Fold:
Amino acid sequence: MADNGISRRRLLGTAGATGLALGAAGGAAGYAAAPSDASEGAASSRAASLTSLGADTVMFHGKHQPGITTPVQSRGHLVAFDLAAGAGRKEAAALLRRWSATAERLMAGKAAEGGDTDVARDAGPSSLSVTFGFGHSFFGRTGLEKQRPSALDPLPDFSSDRLDKARSDGDLWVQIGANDPLVAFHALRALQKEAGDAARVRWQMNGFNRSPGATAHPMTTRNLMGQIDGTNNPKPSEDDFDRRIYVPATGNPSWMAGGSYAVVRRIRMLLDDWEKLGLGDQEAVIGRHKSDGSPLTGGTESTEPKLEKADADGKYVIALNAHARITRPDQNGGSAMLRRPFSYHDGFDKDGEPDAGLLFVCWQADPLRGFVPVQRKLDRGDALSEFIRHEASGLFAVPGGAAKGEYVGQRLLEA
Structure:
């Protein structure tokens, strides 16, 4: 698989692919001002481990594109492009060829060709991954309407949406992740320059996650509300993971074999309102304890919630509108999606409230059986909806990985 190039990170206390956002709990052990020989050895070992982060690589070529099951990185950029006026299939193919060559070089820790900016000159690849996808409008712009997947039909309207069209959709989508901000920016700048006259940026969103090694042991990370987030993510070790996340080899259209569909949503968290709630009320909204992510019905983070358990007054311990209840796969006909988002903070609005939240990215073999049914149910009565606002949205077909010597999307653009 394309995402199997990382190994050392799993030894450094990172959260893995199920982590979602900025970590607010846990921390690395500190060192005494006058360390003993033992602590000096620990410090030296830790320094060596942190140095190795820059050397970690993710493979560009493979059955699937990188950035799907790649352990979530500490810095991310999501960018949508529109093809320029007059640009069509020929220009799109040339662009994807250039982009793929540049992504392959940068992910291997090499300089970009044609005048590198040297932004990341002193760094290794730092787990850089670059992922490419096509929006609904791409197929009309390139004369490939007959190859447009039905799964790429526009998402339905949801009552909680407050979408900004200028920051939604797009012909082409690029996801960049790395464990060094300069490496991530370097890739962003290189790909933007490679677009040349063929495409222009439609929108860009910048996100972050907990830094590798920030916690003393591996744990699911927290979102900006302080909640452990990502507990029930599908895991690659599960027998039905590929079926839920990737388009099968026999799928239609054939060029999407090994690919996946990414739903991208900019979800603003109304943090001022959320933080006015007491701890008990916050936990009731989610249905889990804030301290360790365990369900209100008891156990640990991985314990299945007892949805039928009632308190002494006969009320459900986990409320009917609790987020944890509504999002359970067994409460949604088995619908599942792999969530792999970044947190964001874009300053403050005119009222002084933080413009912060989640750059939600989820992956599935079919959004009509993954994201849509879950979001519809959330839309009808999730207690968390009062404290979040969906402000931008996109759906992108992400083809399978490129074989050696190929570029991403070649099976579509040269069919």
